[in-house]
Amino acid sequence: MKLDVNGVSYHVEVINADQQETIVFLHGFTGSTKSWQPVIEGWNDVKIVLIDLIGHGETDCPEEIEHYRMQRQVEDLDALFAQLGLEGLTLIGYSMGGRTALAYACNFPERLKGLVLESASPGLRTDEEQQERQTRDEGLAQRIAAGGITNFVDHWENIPLFNSQKSLSEPVKQAIREERLAQNPIGLANSLKGMGTGAQESYWELLKNLETPVLLVTGQLDGKFRAIAEEMAELLPDAVHKTIEGGHAIHVEKPAEFATIVREYSSLNYQGGKS
User: Fold this and answer.
1) What does the pLDDT look like over 138-172, one tens digit per residue?
2) Could you name the CATH architecture of 2-124+201-270?
3) How is the chain classified by DSSP, letter by letter?
């Protein structure tokens, strides 16, 4: 379905709409609602909401960069949740979607029952780090604009972060590539410039105040984000950190294992248990 918020038409899919327990999924950069299909197979007793974030999938890709700011994105999400009548939900985000999910939790914790962050970070701590990353993301955005989507995807799927995906089956690798190739270059470029890691504010200082139960999931081979999750777990009041065999995109590499951990965690929170 299409839902309009703040001048942007968002692509939203609702599965098992009659169920009460609700889990919302936010994909990563170059992803879409299709990213979660292997994870949600057979989930019949939970309402599942899949959203294409701005600049991705079938959601609008406006040219105005203001639409892509992280604060604007989380405000749009809250308006979407209000339109859908969602309360007491579990919000799951991967990488860019994880940063977005955390930003949402810091701004609108009252709507959440639980938060699952897969290979995600609270941003960068210092102005110097943010400026350096902004410069890199601007360069990547220019590469997309100048070289086109195929040139960019050829580069993106070969960065070290995704090395562990090279051992996936050919059909899975092809599905990932096709999802990336289907993206709008304007949307990807603006997403990098508007809500990339360098552009967003840091949420490190807010972690200690976040009362929402948080599940941090990282891959054993993803040393950088495993270390970030360990540090986050020390700061968050109610956090559990799980590692799964695999790299950065665990939901792609180990969808069944990822699904099991998420289901157990969300059900515990929904029933009012303590993680």
Assistant:
1) 999 998 988 899 999 998 988 888 888 888 899 99
2) 3-Layer(aba) Sandwich (3.40)
3) -EEEETTEEEEEEEESTT-SSEEEEE--TT--GGGGHHHHTT--SSEEEEEPPTTSTTS---S-GGGGSHHHHHHHHHHHHHHHT--SEEEEEETHHHHHHHHHHHH-GGGEEEEEEES-----SSHHHHHHHHHHHHHHHHHHHHHHHHHHHHHHTTSGGGGGGGGS-HHHHHHHHHHHHTS-HHHHHHHHHHHSTTTSPP-GGGGGG--S-EEEEEETT-HHHHHHHHHHHHHSSSEEEEEESSSS-HHHHSHHHHHHHHHHHHHHHHTT---
